[in-house]
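Morning run. Coffee first, then this:
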Amino acid sequence: MPGPPPAVAAVRVALRRALEQHGLLGADVVVGCSGGVDSLALAAAAAFVVPRGGGRAGAVVVDHGLQLGSHETAAAAAAACRRLGLSPVEVVPVDVRHAGTGPEGAARTARLAALTAAAHGHGASAVLLGHTLDDQAEQVLLGLVRGSGTTSLSGMPPARPHGDPSVLLLRPLLGVSRAVTAAACADLGLTPWADPHNDELRYTRVRVRRLLPVLEEQLGPGVSAALARSADLLRDDASVLDDLCSTAYRRLGEQPWMVDQLREHPPAVRRRLWRRLAIEHGVPAGALGATHLLALDDLLEHWHGQGPIDLPGGVRALRSQGRVWLQRPGAS
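And here it is:
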């Protein structure tokens, strides 16, 4: 008896390996499905792989309400998931508020929160996300364009908890190209939804997506895969630096922090300390850039009595009498 088409098999194998690697074979999971080509291919794979491992596969469709007809689009994606055999299938509307992070960042924050909450409500151990090799490459390029550090350049992690530690965000397709997921949908007779935002050049991510094929043409095939490998290597480096930051953060204790104690740490660790402190004081993570972190570090290395540093979200950084601290809006 012939096996499935190669693209269908590739998506199924990637999912099964990810579930095995994280001890989730036999666990209940939900697929975060927009109805797009990647998440629909993943939903189809989950409907096949998860029950055969002894688990149950459901789906959650998040309706961001940002586009005309979003309710109908979400309902169509949910119907497609039900036809594939996923159960339960839930449509979750969310209220997207920018909060200084921009529309894409706000939508991502609302989406992940909704997916995690829905998974917890259904007793699922993981949310499966359909990010592919191409998405990972785009993420690295975006980090390069924005002048980001190793954390951003390390791309999206294959697995991590989000909010609820009992629910894992799992990205099984980071080694699978978008061409493969598209072929899998075609082989299975599935009709993906095409997000009109993917054609809007006002989004930097869309412009980067159009740049990748040009790089492949000019530099040769394999650019996306090379960028994804770089992300894997940088993720290991970032993990070590994050551990050093956590240790330093505990030792520094409550702010204000002594300037001399901060200067004992390497710049790479200090930038992580500043970032962690800023986010804890209300600076939106998506609005905190390298220029902000460098300005904060100038309070240590290039301070000549200058005044407070203003950060996104109304947070201010101050230095006085050999100490530095961050101050929330409205605090004295």
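DSSP finds twelve helices and ten strands in the chain. Good start to the day.
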